[in-house]
Amino acid sequence: MTVTELLSYDAALAAFDPVMGLEVHVELGTRTKMFCGCSTELGAEPNSQTCPTCLGLPGSLPVVNAIGVESAIKIGLALNCEIAEWCRFARKNYFYPDMPKNFQTSQYDEPIAFNGYLDVQLEDGEIFRVEIERAHMEEDTGKSTHIGGATGRIHGASHSLLDYNRAGIPLIEIVTKPIEGAGERAPEVAKAYVAELRELIRALGVSEARMDKGQMRCDVNLSLRPNGTKTFGTRSETKNVNSLRSVERAARFEIQRHAAVLTSGGTIIQETRHFHEDDGSTTSGRIKDNAEDYRYFPEPDLVPVAPAREWVEELRKGLPELPRVRRNRLREEWGVSELDMQSILNAGAVDSIVATIEAGADSASARKWWMGELARNANEQGVALEELAITPSDVARVSALVSAGDLNDKLARQVIEGVLAGEGTPDEVVEKRGLKVVSDDGALGTAVDEAIAGNAGIADKIRGGKVAAVGALVGAVMKATRGQADAAKVKDLILEKLGVSEG
Amino acid sequence: MTDNIIIKLTAAEIAGKIAAGELTAVEVTEAHLARIEAVDEKVHAFLHVDREGALAQARAVDEKRARGEKLGPLAGVPLALKDIFTTVGMPTTVGSKILEGWIPPYDATLVKNLKAADVVILGKTNMDEFAMGSSTENSAYGPTGNPWDLTRIPGGSGGGSSAALAAYEAPLAIGTDTGGSIRQPAAVTGTVGVKPTYGGVSRFGMVAFSSSLDQGGPCARTVLDAALLHEAIAGHDPLDSTSIDAPVPPVVEAARNGSVAGMRVGVVKQFRGEGYQAGVVQRFDESVELLKSLGAEIVELDCPTFDLALSAYYLIAPSECSSNLARFDAMRYGLRVGDDGTRSAEDVTALTREAGFGDEVKRRIILGTYALSSGYYDAYYGSAQKVRTLITREFEKAFEEVDVIVSPTTPTTAFPIGERADDPMAMYLADLCTIPTNLAGNAAMSLPCGLAPEDGLPVGLQIIAPAMKDDRLYKVGAAVEAAFVEKWGHPLLEEAPSL
User: Fold this and answer.
1) Distances from the Cα of A119 to the Cαs of A62, A114, A193, A427, B120, in angstroms?
2) ipTM
3) CA distances for A411 relative to A269, A377, A396, A398, A434, angstroms
4) What is the domain extent for residue A378?
5) pLDDT tens, position by position, A390-424
């Protein structure tokens, strides 16, 4: 890898003002592709989810996916955009083997949504408004796999494999206006924007927006201008930055790189850049000197999209609470810190916790189970929380059994383990595994007596004032009851029998 | 009944005789296959004859009848299909080397409709490559001869379909019309051809030349046959977004009730003058007189924007084609040249396109690519679209005054093969009268109106109707056809020399 000169971040910001533009592609979670009836399910055999239309066979024609349009409008509305009364698709003409028709059906100067904004909350709680230029509909390309090269890129490859399953999957491209005035916080704003957008897309239910699965991809465009000036500098376009952390790192790297080039008297070349996850650097891609000409023209095979105003208003009414607003409301209701809220968000546990509370649990125990035992489990299995074989009402039931004193934490974990293993509801697991706390004083009394009798030496020590030694006797009782006793109660009983108070 | 009688029957007559048990579908198909075998070496209307498939379809019709099932109005009638529609099990070349040997995995909607109507598809007909041309000389597989004079062109791009009809190789054929490719071949071969309203017949499975102009339609020897075929192939198709979601106009009813009495018929000033052959103008003027004598009122129309139609067309059609043909890149289907394991994908694409596309196709791809380029878009494609809007408005205004418009279909009769091959501008003029209709998206028909006195070759009369009023073409066409046949004593085609 070529070593890139960087200026320190502080020095870069002392001299320059960063301007960013973020382009985010979201794969919609529609059941079928944007212009044909093929399935969008990921992970199928290569080229098994194709038809004449998404393969671009001669004679084939596209038909617009109505759910795709609806999703685009929902996104536009949630981003406070105006929704076009009439707009068309356009052909973006360029050659690439993974694009079956050698043009991408997209939108050009008539996007479905335009002129909006998204307020994002930074880590210290400050709100930063990101202006939205447009959101438009388009189709994804197929996927090329280059074989034989060292880097997986086309250069040096001996041949390439093409999978058209992805060709035609609906995409929404969301483009910001130039983001100015973020200063040193530009990388943080970039990350917060993408994070907020991801939450928004999920809340709308239009996509899972999993960046790790390529369902959401971000391009970071960045330029610097000397502090106090207005004219934008030349930008670089860092493509396919595919995690929140990478978005922040890419912006930061490019600020430092641009600054180093500019302060040494060089000029920034308008080009695309590849981002490298391993060291957070970017390297040169292809030059974009504005000579690129996509020869856009209105797609003659499709009719214009003219969403009725009543429909748009109906969709607006159905919009969910914005993630930022909801998050702040829940944080206050639950009484947790920003930091804790952030980890709940990162774990994808918000909805499960809310549902568990709705099913009757208190918020502390709902959070405790989802962020503890269950998060660990999901992590081990490599699945999302909501994919676990346990429902929020199961968790609420476990929590109720604990507060009633029927289960202690250790037993509750076993109940959860049983539910996850498919042994039934929490009550069924308690029943089958015989996991109730032993609260029968008679049975417990016998166990305590036996423990005292069997550990006479320790009992004497306790009688002699070494109360701390009681732990050994408690342990013996718990062992005898196979953990089903309430440890605090056992301790009290032993001390009572030995005539010692805890002083 | 002898083969020679069978092949001269109309589609309506054939269907009637099959339904009545006077003929079997297999007999009819065999008669036409025999005719193809006898004359197509000379005519070269067909690129592919599907003998086995056609006979199997015919047998199925006969079995259906034997079981007592009701037969449709075209059941068992043979048809010649322009090689631009995708067909499972039959090659689809679009007259181009670049698709040589490609067998599509799906049937076009129009083909499905034909099969559903029990029409027997004999094979695929020759055409100008990608439907670009007016003479069928641009086919990569050699020219087609005009049955009236085999040294002359049969029109284009659908010259194979019109020649098949004129040579009695099939009573029905399918064409596609982007700038006149159904009507001009019909005119120069003395047959009937209809370009339905844009969106009237599904384009799904019709290989695209210029998406906003292309329209499939019926070709036949009589107006009624064209109407029967029109009804069989038309209708809304959910797979074609530009397909009209409305009932098919009552074309068969109109064809059975031909009349022009009380109709206002427009004659456009712009459709005559320099470049029009004297005999063509003479036959057209006689047709106008005939219409008058049948009770029509003739209205003179001035449509100055029609003079811009050809220029607008030669920007819009190439622009769309430059994008539509981009998919022929040797990656997935069709021809692949130079893939020796050392060359890049880009080189293989370039070599394949160099070898696989003919000159006219290359000319239009280059023209269209240029017209869409940034910096030129507004001046060329953008202006052309504005002209298109003006032409559409001028038609709308005209149709406030008249019910239909008539004109010569094409300025000249069939010209000799080779005469205009090196002069694209002269070739483009053949579509002078047909192009405005494609730009506006309305419906038009060409039917025979006599032979030009100077060369004894057929002249076509064009009838133009507003969008979705396709039935008017048939109402007027049937009246004119009946009057001419009465005047001549027989259908015009009977004057064609025997092959």
Assistant:
1) 36, 16, 8, 45, 65
2) 0.96
3) 64, 16, 15, 10, 10
4) 321-433
5) 999 999 999 998 888 788 888 899 899 999 999 99
Question: Which residues of chain A lie closer than 8 angstroms to B241, CB-CB?
Answer: 61-64, 301-303
Given a contact cutoff of 8 angstroms between Cβ atoms, the answer to whether B118 and B72 are in contact is yes
Best CA proximity match to A95, nearest among B240, B233, B350, B24: B350
Q: Tell me which H or E stretch contains A237.
A: strand A236-241
Bridge partners (DSSP) of residue A283 are: A274
Same domain assignment for residues A142 and A283: yes
Provide the number of structural domains found in chain A: 3
In a domain, A312, yes or no: no
| Enclosing H/E stretch for A241 | strand A236-241
Q: Name which of B214, B239, B385, B388 to mutate to probe chain A: the one with the most chain A Cβ atoms within 10 A of its Cβ.
A: B239
Q: What percent of chain A has pLDDT over 90?
A: 65
Cα(B327)–Cα(B356) distance, integer angstroms: 13
**Residue B200 CB contacts under 8 Å (≥ 6 apart), including other chains:** B215, B234, B244, B248, B249, B443, B468, B470
Q: Is residue B393 part of a domain?
A: no
Contact: B205, A56; criterion CB under 8 Å: no
Looking at residue B75, which CATH number applies to its domain?
3.90.1300.10
**B64 backbone φψ class: left, alpha, beta (φ>0; ψ -120 to 50):** alpha
A50 with A131, same domain: the answer is: yes
- Other C-beta atoms closer than 10 Å to the C-beta of B494 total 11
**Count of domains observed in chain B:** 1
Query: Is B354 within a domain?
Result: no
Are residues A31 and A81 located together in one domain of the fold? yes
Structure tokens at A137: 């509909």
Catalytic residues of B, by residue number, are: 82, 157, 181
Among A55, A103, A293, beta carbon nearest to B323? A103
Domain encompassing residue B473: 3-259+437-495
CB contact set of B86 (below 8 Å; sequence gap of 6+): A52, A57, A58, A59, B92, B104, B106, B107, B108, B111, B205, B206, B207
Each residue's pLDDT tens digit, B31-49: 999 999 999 999 999 999 9
Q: How far is CA B193 from the centre of its chain?
A: 6
